[in-house]
């Protein structure tokens, strides 16, 4: 597959990606290379990357714990200390080999260490490939609040190799599919149609679908790199999705949800809100909600749960002046930003979600 050339970085695929990675390493003449992994990617992916890299400089591996609960400033602090203590300088390169948590943390660490060193993302999850590693967003959580601390700064390049996906459990694969479904809903109904019949879904089409999904996201992100307008459309399903993810993470009695699992719920809620507020087609709402439900098991929310989820909405990054702003749909492929939603409308959306069981 052809490399995607963007204004500030490139996204390369399969074997060609390693050719370009090695060219970057040798052209830039880095003083040292650091590779950030979590314990899962250290075990399953590090050997493969080592075999593909050609570098004549010192290589150091930094391993962190896996999981959203470690996506914190404390983790960053440990990485910064390791970089400093082992002699990293402004000509060092940080390669982030892992899922969205590793690339988010690694990008933020690199962007702030010595006021910024180069970094490369090698996402190993579907979510990382189509979302987290694309677009230049890097950052960490503040307690259970998602992505409150961070910076927008692009990597030197992104390496996309679908071979890494063979190491993933099915739950992680579905998490990435949520973002691909979102791309179809906000940008391209024809792309969305690829996922309509689960029984006919062809795995060999996945590399092409991943590239198409990346192109949808990069087109939006390149037009609005700092999220001043159009890029907010990528937050469809994320306002309530992030709130649900944070609530489930912070509640000891609740099952933690992967990012894509929470966003899938958020998208169904946003579809129903789109019907009530923007007269989005009820038929399209039902069809899209059923499509999402094919991939994701239902989660039960009591009225008390819903009330608590709503308290997290005030922390959403799209909010301005204390007003909670939603991204909704007028039509598939036609998102509308900064929509105001009432408490009662949110309750009705949860009732609609419950009725899909």
Automatic annotation (TrEMBL):
Cofactor(s) needed for function: Co(2+); NAD(+); Zn(2+)
Top EC class, one word: lyase
InterPro entries tied to this protein: Dehydroquinate_synthase (IPR050071), DHQ_synth_AroB (IPR016037), DHQ_synth_fam (IPR030963), DHQS/DOIS_N (IPR030960), DHQS_C (IPR056179)
GO cellular component: cytoplasm
Domain 3-dehydroquinate synthase C-terminal, first and last residues per copy: 176-319
Molecular function via GO: 3-dehydroquinate synthase activity; metal ion binding; nucleotide binding
UniProt keyword list: Cobalt, Lyase, Metal-binding, NAD, Nucleotide-binding, Zinc
Keyword Lyase listed: yes
The EC number(s) this enzyme carries: 4.2.3.4
Example GO biological process: aromatic amino acid family biosynthetic process
Alphabetical list of Gene3D superfamilies matching this protein: 3.40.50.1970, Dehydroquinate synthase-like - alpha domain
Domain 3-dehydroquinate synthase N-terminal: from-to ranges: 62-174
Pfam families given in the database record: DHQ_synthase (PF01761), DHQS_C (PF24621)
Main function: Catalyzes the conversion of 3-deoxy-D-arabino-heptulosonate 7-phosphate (DAHP) to dehydroquinate (DHQ).
Name of protein: 3-dehydroquinate synthase
Organism (species): Psychroflexus gondwanensis ACAM 44
Lineage of the organism: Bacteria, Pseudomonadati, Bacteroidota, Flavobacteriia, Flavobacteriales
């Amino acid at each position: 597959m052809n490399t995607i050339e963007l204004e500030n970085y490139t996204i390369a695929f399969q074997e060609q990606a390693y050719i370009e990675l090695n060219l970057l390493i040798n052209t830039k003449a880095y003083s040292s290379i650091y590779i950030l992994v979590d314990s899962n990617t250290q075990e399953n992916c590090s050997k493969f990357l080592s075999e593909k890299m050609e570098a004549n400089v010192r290589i150091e591996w930094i391993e962190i714990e896996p999981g959203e609960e470690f996506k914190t400033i404390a983790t960053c602090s440990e990485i910064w200390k390791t970089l400093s203590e082992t002699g990293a300088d402004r000509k060092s390169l940080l390669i982030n080999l892992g899922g969205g948590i590793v690339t988010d943390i690694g990008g933020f660490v690199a962007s702030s260490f010595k006021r910024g060193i180069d970094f490369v993302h090698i996402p190993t999850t579907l979510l990382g490939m189509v979302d987290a590693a694309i677009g230049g967003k890097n950052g960490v959580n503040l307690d259970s609040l998602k992505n409150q601390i961070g910076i927008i700064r692009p990597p030197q390049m992104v390496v996309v190799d679908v071979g890494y996906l063979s190491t993933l459990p099915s739950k992680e694969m579905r998490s990435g599919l949520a973002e691909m479904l979102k791309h179809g809903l906000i940008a391209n109904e024809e792309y969305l149609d690829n996922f309509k019949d689960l029984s006919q879904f062809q795995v060999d089409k996945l590399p092409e679908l991943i590239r198409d999904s990346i192109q949808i996201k990069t087109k939006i992100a390149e037009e609005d790199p700092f999220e001043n307008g159009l890029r907010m459309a990528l937050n469809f399903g994320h306002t309530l999705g992030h709130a649900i993810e944070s609530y489930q993470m912070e509640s000891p009695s609740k099952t933690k949800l992967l990012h894509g699992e929470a966003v899938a719920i958020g998208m169904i809620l946003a579809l129903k809100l789109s019907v009530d507020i923007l007269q989005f087609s009820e038929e399209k709402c039902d069809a899209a909600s059923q499509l999402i439900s094919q991939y994701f098991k239902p989660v039960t929310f009591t009225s008390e749960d819903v009330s608590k989820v709503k308290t997290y909405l005030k922390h959403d990054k799209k909010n301005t002046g204390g007003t909670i702003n939603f991204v909704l749909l007028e039509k598939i492929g036609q998102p509308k930003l900064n929509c105001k939603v009432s408490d009662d409308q949110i309750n009705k959306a949860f009732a609609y979600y419950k009725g899909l069981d």
